[in-house]
Amino acid sequence: HDPEDPEDALARVIGDTAARGGTIIIPAFAVGRTQTLLFHLARLKRANRIPNLPVFLDSPMAENASELFCRHLADQRLSAAECRTACNVAHYVRDVEESKGLDTNPMPKVIVSASGMATGGRVLHHLKQYAPDPRSTILFAGFQAGGTRGQAMTEGAETVKIHGQRIPVRAHVENLHMLSAHADAAEIMAWLKNFERPPRTTFITHGEPDASDALRLRIEEELGWTCCVPEQNDEVSL
User: Fold this and answer.
1) Whole-prediction pTM value?
2) Whose C-alpha in 31, 67, 131, 207 is 20 to 30 A from the C-alpha of 90?
3) How buried is residue 159: exposed, middle or buried, by Cβ count under 10 Å (0-12/13-18/19+)?
4) What is the rounded distance in angstroms from the CA atom of residue 85 to the CA atom of residue 160?
5) Cα angle at 203 between 192 and 181, to 5 degrees?
6) In degrees to the nearest 10, what's the CA dihedral of 27, 33, 34, 36?
7) For 31-97, where are the E strands, in sequence order?
8) What Rg value do the Cα atoms of the chain yield, rounded?
9) Is cis: bond before 115, omega within 30 of 0?
10) Do the beta carbons of residue 175 and residue 2 sit within 8 Å?
11) Residue 111 and residue 15: Cα distance in Å, rounded?
12) C-alpha span between 191 and 32 (Å, rounded)
């Protein structure tokens, strides 16, 4: 993963976008990733590291999840005050008309909205409005699976199809890779090295093909284990 501190990356992107007079659209997974982003945004605002732009959380599921986080404080590492500060950094957009209003208001702002790979949800309406705007930024918050709009945009697509329309992508597009919830290769290798004895075979079943094969080689060469990346429809007797 990118070693850059996520708060440094957020501060840079938000500051640059605000200076252009644009809006920051953050497609975010509703449970977990959204709350992480709110935590970082609250810290940045408290430290005066970002312009005082309004933050909107526009995802019914993310809003419900955020409220649950603060309702079950015993399950959090944050103090009650930290949890409430993080969840309260954003204005919760409750109804559809208010959500639509975000796209007609030219005021620079931060909109956090699901889904995280832009495969559905309210964020699609915001992308239709702001993706063509060269002042704005589409800021993804982690891994983008193959075939998703998120992957297309992070790989430089000039247009994306939303609701049957081809939408030009002129906004800046960035990705906070360091917020990925998946372990990277180094973290997986560190975990495997603590095994008391090697498994008979190690299967890599989750990941992009090139990355999976690179990890297979590392496991074979560094640990001396039998490792394979199964293909679709492969059968193995255990």
Assistant:
1) 0.83
2) 131
3) middle
4) 36
5) 60
6) -130
7) 55-57, 91-92
8) 20
9) yes
10) no
11) 15
12) 23
For each of the chain's 238 residues, which pLDDT tens digit applies?
Answer: 778 899 999 999 999 999 999 999 999 999 989 999 999 999 999 999 999 999 999 999 999 999 898 888 888 888 888 888 998 999 999 899 999 999 999 999 999 999 999 999 999 999 999 999 999 999 999 888 889 999 999 999 999 999 999 999 999 999 998 888 788 899 999 999 999 999 999 999 988 889 899 999 999 999 999 999 999 999 999 8
Residue type, 134: P
Contact 99, 127 (CB under 8 A): no
Coil, strand or helix at 202: strand
Which tokens hold the place of 131? 């993706």
DSSP secondary structure string for all residues of 82-95: HHHHHHTTSEE--S
Q: What angle do CA 166, 146, 201 make, to 5 degrees?
A: 175
Environment class of 155 (CB within 10 Å of its CB; exposed 0-12, middle 13-18, buried 19+): exposed
Burial bucket for residue 206 (CB in 10 Å: 0-12, 13-18, 19+): exposed
Phi, psi (deg, nearest 5) at residue 140: -80, 160
